[in-house]
Specification:
By secondary structure, the chain is an alpha+beta fold. The protein has 3 domains: about 220 residues, no CATH class; about 160 residues, no CATH class; about 45 residues, no CATH class. The chain has 13 helices and 20 strands. The strands form 4 sheets. It has a 7-stranded antiparallel β-sheet, with helices on both faces. Strands 14-15-20-17-18 form a 5-stranded antiparallel β-sheet, with helices on one face. Helix 1 runs antiparallel to helix 5 and helix 3 crosses helix 7. The longest helix has 29 residues. The radius of gyration is 24 Å and the shape is globular. About 55% of the residues are buried.
Length: about 575
């Protein structure tokens, strides 16, 4: 195909996926989808392989390349008609955790299926033991209703039997019903747009374009992988615990680079446990795909031609390739930590391209109850930002979602309008970023209180024990802290995976971790230390870590004293 025509069509498919995301966000009900954008959309070929994807959540796209293909293979395209849509959230049929529901629609053109429109959105509740469906479970059946690959819309009409069955199992019925319908509508839009692209460009054989796109992407990916240093590079890390015991969950990786061959081997990772802290193979693959994407040319398309170049070995029954029936509610927590683990391994061969340790956890805050303003049940979910690790040329950003997590922070105003909660404090945490030539980003403090009703609150997070690691002489970031303050003012330290009842007037406090520092703190530009001190990102005591002195009563750097201090710091 002519290269200009090829590029225009490719960009049209990506624009269609982006438009699907906008439609889904603007027509959904829950804050988690409409504001925090915990969603992704994609167009796929008739075999369920991604050909165009949105710029929403990177982890979802790699997941959909597996989930949709599994759905197509199991359900069979001969059982589908125009206007039909399928739904699934089954972790053990190619899926992820139960809150992430995938809806997909076959796209018919001239009497045959030419592709699929699909989207994945995180629902605030899918049933299970506690509000939000993200508690410290022991098996997947405690985490909510499991939707196998079933038809949810038939010939353009929502299948009311399947829909009613699903809605009978969830708490936040109004939000969930609206979000579900928004997913169906977004796919209908994607189907219309793809047909418009086919007709505009006269693509009578869209399969041929898909194969050319995959071949082009594979060719460019092979060339990019050849630029990486060859060898095997290993690392290990651990999650705090599994939510039921105090034992850490140990993760191990060996990455082999050999020409255009890239192999991720997780042999040696701990076995799965009867807990929520297990990842499906799809979630593990998503981490490997994201990290690989970060290390190669930025303009290489993300589609099946890229994904097929990544080989993952993960022992069945391990914490990174869980088998039924263990829980997977915290599977994305595991996957995000794997990103940190992989960057740690790549630091040994690509030091200029990797960050120091990051927040690398989803950090869920989940609560629900009966809204005293209207008597209706509600569920709220958000994930808090934290510090990004320092980089080879710049500090880590403060209070961001890291790695393949790309959700937004919830505005206080929206949360307090739509939910019966008050935010007491929402602020940066000074000194939480690890010191380094380039400082780690800061974590955030957020306090929730419930003035006039009791709620069930779930913390599903991590980083309470093991901090984001510094690189090349940089210091580790500060660990996270989770606290409950009862109505009398008495404080209690919480674990990073717990569910409890908060009475009216109680306060839950999150203090997320800071990022690790990159490089020797004694090499940091004194003017950067001065700026951090002026902005109160670090304390005067922390400034001493950098060996920087200031003229008495000012924030002007004392160059002579600084030089002496730095010689002492370096000697130490």
């Amino acid at each position: 195909m002519d290269p200009i025509r090829f590029e225009v069509i490719q960009r049209a498919l990506e624009a269609t996926s982006d438009e699907m995301c906008v439609a889904l966000a603007r027509s959904s009900y829950s804050t988690n989808i409409k504001t925090r954008l915990d969603l992704s959309c994609a167009l796929l070929d008739r075999r369920g392989r991604v050909i165009g994807q949105s710029a929403a959540q990177p982890c979802h796209i790699a997941a959909m390349n597996i989930i949709v293909r599994a759905a197509v293979d199991r359900y069979g395209e001969h059982n589908l008609e125009p206007g039909d849509q399928l739904v699934t959230n089954d972790p053990y049929q190619g899926g992820v955790h139960l809150n992430d529901i995938v809806v997909l629609a076959p796209i018919f053109h001239r009497g045959r299926i030419v592709g699929y429109a699909a989207n994945l959105a995180h629902h605030v509740d899918v049933g299970g033991s506690y509000a939000g469906s993200l508690a410290a479970s022991r098996e997947v059946y405690q985490e909510g209703i499991i939707l196998p690959i079933v038809k949810v819309a038939s010939r353009g009409d929502l299948d009311t039997d399947i829909f009613r069955m699903f809605m009978a199992n969830v708490r936040a019925k109004k939000e969930t019903a609206g979000d579900f319908r928004a997913q169906v509508a977004a796919n209908s839009l994607g189907a219309r747009r793809l047909i418009e692209v086919l007709e505009r460009f006269g693509l009578d054989r869209p399969d041929e374009f898909a194969e050319e796109l995959f071949a082009y992407t594979e060719r460019r990916t092979r060339e990019a992988l050849k630029q990486l240093p060859t060898g095997t590079f290993s690392a290990q890390d651990a999650l705090d615990d599994d939510g039921h015991t105090d034992e850490p969950v140990h993760l191990k990786i060996a990455i082999t680079i050999d020409g255009d061959f890239l192999h991720f081997d997780f042999t040696g990772t701990d076995p799965q446990r009867p807990s929520p802290m297990n990842a499906t193979l799809t979630q593990t693959f998503a981490a490997c795909a994201f990290v690989t994407r970060c290390l190669i040319d930025r303009d290489i398309p993300v589609n099946d031609g890229f994904f097929r170049m990544i080989k993952v070995t993960a022992p069945e029954g391990s914490a990174v390739n869980a088998l039924s029936p263990v829980g997977v509610a915290g599977g994305w927590e595991v996957s995000l930590r794997l990103c940190d683990l992989l960057f740690q391994a790549f630091a040994k061969c690509l030091p200029e391209k990797v960050p120091a340790g990051c927040k690398a956890m989803v950090c869920h805050a989940v609560f629900g109850g009966v809204d005293p303003r209207n008597g209706e049940g509600y569920v709220f979910i958000e994930t808090l930002g934290g510090g990004h690790g320092g980089r080879s040329r710049s500090d880590g950003p403060d209070v961001v979602q890291t790695h393949h997590q790309n959700t937004q922070n919830t505005p206080i105003e929206e949360m307090e309008v739509f939910y019966p909660v008050r935010t007491m404090r929402y602020e940066l945490i000074p000194d939480s970023g690890g010191a380094g030539k380039f400082r780690g980003g800061l974590g955030v403090l957020r306090e929730y209180t419930f003035p006039n009703h009791d709620v069930v609150f779930t913390v599903l997070a991590d980083r309470r024990k093991f901090p984001p690691r510094g690189l090349f002489g940089g210091d580790d970031g500060r660990t996270a802290r989770y606290t409950y303050v009862d109505p009398t003012g008495k404080e209690k330290t919480l674990g990073s995976k717990t569910t409890f009842t908060v009475p009216a007037g109680g306060v839950v406090r999150y203090e997320t971790c800071g990022g690790g520092g990159y490089g020797d703190p004694a090499e940091r530009d004194p003017e950067l230390v001065r700026a951090d001190l002026k902005e109160r990102k670090i304390s005067p005591e922390a400034a001493m870590q950098y060996g920087v002195a200031f003229l008495p009563g000012t924030l002007d750097v004392d160059a002579a004293t600084t030089a002496k201090l730095r010689r002492k710091v370096s000697a130490a």
